[in-house]
Specification:
The chain is an alpha/beta fold. It has one domain: P-loop containing nucleotide triphosphate hydrolases (Rossmann fold, 3-Layer(aba) Sandwich), CATH 3.40.50.300. The chain contains 5 helices and 6 strands, in the order E-H-E-H-E-H-E-E-H-E-H. A 6-stranded parallel β-sheet has the order 1-6-5-2-4-3, sandwiched between helices. Strand 3, helix 3 and strand 4 form a beta-alpha-beta unit. 30% of the residues are buried. Pfam families: Helicase_C. One of its GO terms (molecular function) is 3'-5' DNA helicase activity. InterPro entries: Helicase_C-like, P-loop_NTPase. This is DNA 3'-5' helicase.
Length: 171
């Protein structure tokens, strides 16, 4: 799959109330959707909300037995469920070209993971949407962490530069 993916539509919005947030997450047309969550607990919570909405869905995270994970994987690939709610443990070996929506319920861990995870959508070249639902608290861990590290690094180097001054043609 190419780096240039004009068929992917990205959207970001803040979380409000989980039940309300997840109402519009899954397309009405029954097309395949992956909902990524950052923890096992949030995966289970989102899974239960979607089940209560009457959706055919599966759950996948490393805390489940191998048998349950294999069944969730197979059910999704074979269109027995419309949605899989998962941690990043779900993804390897997912070659399903017709995934129409990727949702991150919480900020992704880092930009590389985000790119890889949204890359599972629209592999057939048809339009697909990728949505991030986040809260300010999510940013303490996800994508904001590298920014905070960079900001700290820059703030240490700038004062040092100002103390020492530029070294143009010294000698």
């Amino acid at each position: 799959t190419s780096f240039d993916r004009p068929n992917l539509y990205l959207e970001v919005s803040r979380k409000a109330v989980m039940v309300d947030d997840l109402k519009d997450v899954v397309p009405d047309d029954g097309s395949p959707t992956i909902v990524y969550c950052s923890t096992r607990a949030s995966t289970e919570e989102v899974y239960k909300v979607l089940l209560n909405q009457g959706l055919k869905c599966a759950v996948y995270h490393a805390g489940l037995s191998l048998e349950v994970r294999k069944k969730s994987h197979a059910d999704f690939l074979n269109d027995r469920v419309q949605v899989v709610v998962a941690t990043v443990a779900f993804g390897m070996g997912i070659d399903k070209p017709d995934v129409r929506r990727i949702v991150h319920y919480g900020a992704p861990r880092d930009i590389e993971s985000y790119y890889q995870e949204i890359g599972r959508a629209g592999r057939d070249g048809l339009p697909a949407s990728c949505r991030v639902l986040y809260s300010p608290g999510d940013l303490r861990y996800g994508l904001a962490t590298p920014i905070a590290v960079l900001r700290g690094s820059v703030s240490q180097k700038v004062p040092q530069y100002l103390r020492n001054g530029p070294n143009f043609g010294a000698g």
